[in-house]
What does this fold into?
Amino acid sequence: MNQDISNVFFSMKDIVKQYQMGEEVSTVLNNVNLSIQEGEYLSVLGPSGSGKSTLMNIIGCLDLPTSGEYILHGQRVNDLGEKELSRIRSREIGFIFQNSQMLPLLDAQKNVELPLIYAGVRPKERRERAQEMLRHVGLADRMHHYPNQLSGGQQQRVAIARALVTRPTLLLADEPTGALDQKMGRQIMELFQELSDNGHTIIMITHDLNIAKHARRVVHIIDGELSEGEAVNP
Amino acid sequence: MKHFFQKLSGGFYMFVESVKMSVSNILQNKMRSFLTVLGILIGVMAVIALVTTISGVSTSISDSFLSMGAGSMTLTVTGTELKTGLTDEDMEKIAQLEHVNGVCPSISLNSTVTVEDVSDSFTVSGKNDYFFVHTPNAVARGRAISRLDTDSQNRVCLISQDLVESHFYGVDPLGKTLYLDNRDFTVVGIIQEDEDVSIATILTGTPDLYIPHSTALKMTGAASVNSLTIYIDDIENSEAVEGELETLLDPLFNYEDDVYSINSMESIGDTMEEMLGMMSMLLAGIASIALLVGGIGIMNMMLTSVTERTVEIGLKKAIGAEPGQIQLQFLIESFLLSIAGGLAGIVLGILLSAALCNVMGITFTLSYGAIALGVGFSAAVGIIFGWSPARKASRLSPIDALRRM
It folds into this structure.
């Protein structure tokens, strides 16, 4: 059994997520099946209310499914406690949110160091890795700028550096360009492309077909049901 | 083993960063933090000031007790109808008890003193030679009352500085004559006005005149003595002497209750210390209410902070912070707030107490116990009142938190 699991990189099988709303049970995800190879670049496309945020929460180990099986990097996630879930988030997943969400009291470098702080990495190594990541996203000259001194695009780059600094197995982006203008959005998409070319596994969630098209594989989610879309960017 | 140390050092680095983040969070809301700290500051200051001042008072009282003829006790007799007081014979028996060096009767009266037609009322105390042996500082000038004076009921007296000034202004009173209730007395000495007086005088006040007790008895017409100072060899033996006295006195008074009372320096000191202790507990208790209110202030601020920082908490959780790490962050914050208030409160409390001691004219002693108390109290308040908000923060669901973004 263990042997079977460890070979699987990412698989969701019959994932159901239901919420109790008073007397009624509302099903947000209905039998979702999804599997991804290592290094794949996937986008989940769906309108608001389609269940894509719930799906992202489950993929990101922020929430657990009501039923079904979710395996990430060889580990069954379904029945883990909150502490184990935070360990998995720390080790396996790099989050990029719609609003970059930097902590306002910390400068760019400290913001990028944050996940390493919780992982217990030594200060020297932490600094070096954060600086390397910031250089990587083109912010070598903005390391000690505070969020209010950075543009939206720059903040999003910091968020990407923060997501990558733990060397996660999976990069999970929720509307990464949602708060940016077109030009900045394009730059971020170029950066994603570059990351994908370098072998990062990326799942991007969006409602925008133009953004979704940047991924090599697109899946649609409507009313909690997932369907495979056509490959747009072979 | 290596893994264990890695975990330990990782926890340490995380702790250091949490402290840094807490400090910048506290400084972010300077006014709010200051007001919260002020609550704890006032509480700790009150506790420290009260405890230190009272312990200063208590030390100063017991010091002065020790300095004044530590080895004495007083016996006060109310007597029965059959036997109203102590006779010379009884006093002789008491003087011969083990550990007793000597006894001195005290006969107090108010008399009119007349010197060259100037009359005034003064307090007079009849004493014997033992009193002066055990109170060497009692005489400023001249001589004390001697055995010969008491034996022959001599009309001699020692007078206070007040009396010298009011009745012998500009003359040397030694050897002069004054009239005490129309009996002529020769002034043989001047009483030293001093704080270092015996238990007998602290209870009754320093009299204006000392005369031989036998002469005083003759003046009052009484046959027996109702107040006696007993000089013992060591204060440690006061309980033993008390026992001996009871064995001796009970048969004399037919075993009736409440006909005499014995006060030793020790028992008075104990009572005083007990009272001061109770007072200090009571006041510290009242001051702790201020500390409690301060704690509630901290809790209030932390709860507000948790609500305000929901997004931050969610984000930190999403990037891998464990619930315990979030809880630690908030606990450090409330701890720092509280300990800052505590330390400032200790400093101000000590200053306040030093000022109070200065005003009251007692020696201020720095009490390390009080400092430890202040540190301990404020640390405990920070942790206890920070616990529930920190727990609340650690339990926030990252999804709910991030939905607010």
About this structure: Residues 196-200 of chain B have pLDDT under 50 and may be disordered. The first helix of chain B runs from residue 2 to 28.
